[in-house]
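The protein record filed below.
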Amino acid sequence: MHRGLRRHATARRGRARRFVAGTLAAGALALSLTGCGDSVDPIERLGRKTAEKTPATETPAKETKGAGSTAGSAVPSAGTGSPNTASDEAYKKWGLTAPLQYAPKPAQKPQIPKAAPGKVPVIDRIPVPADDKVVFLTFDDGAEKDPEFLKMAADLKLPISMFLTDNVASSDYGHFEKLRDNGSASTINNHTLTHPNLRTLSYEAQKHEICGQQDRLEKRFGQRPPLFRPPFGNYNDDTLRAASECGVSSLLLWRVSMQINNFQYADGSALKPGDIILAHFRGPSELKGATEIQMTTRMLQRIQDQGYRIGRLEDYL
């Protein structure tokens, strides 16, 4: 009788182990199918606060929902004090369930910490009040040039701060000029000539990468960019000195990165007031079949889900 009980217990434990293993396998498959937590960018990582930190391994993103979708008119500041308003139906056209909300230009710019003489300040979050639920959109590189994205950005009046790398964006700088001039007051900024890890380069080589792109963007677009983002978020003291020499006013990092479906957070599991969001001009080959439109729609939905407005970065700097 005792032997029969032992056989029954052993069989029950075996079924339990098989159930747990099957559950874990199903969960892993679900994650791989949804792209949840997948890093679509093998070279960009979440921004670091200091230059000397070893790049952190990206962890699976957590999809966090806040106070529900926002509603109301979309009113970006356009940097002029006269608001632009997206059409009432634009949000439906691009897969949103409610109009986006935009933060107006602040009456007073936040106090940005000053840099040491001969260097530029490093900014990874805009210091807004804790109750000011505003975030900022930035797009890097410039490999993807989807004409549908131009329509989306224009319809929704998205204020995008672009950080362009010459060797991928220059094949059609006109695409980004159209994005800049679509009425949303988007801007064009510097992301180096060739996207190197600047920490591995000498001061002179870094200065060539930064100043070279400053010169090319000024020649092409008629204005020397005030903002610079180092590839991979990697920089050192030489970077800060070179950027200053090249006429840059601030070095911009980020705390939140948009992947295919979800955000990845440098700290915590939700957006915080003043977050600078990193996205990329990327297409299906780098987004595992998703389009730039789909990725951006999901990003805007995540912003709405957490009850945030979108601000124009340059209005705060």
Summary: The radius of gyration is 22 Å.
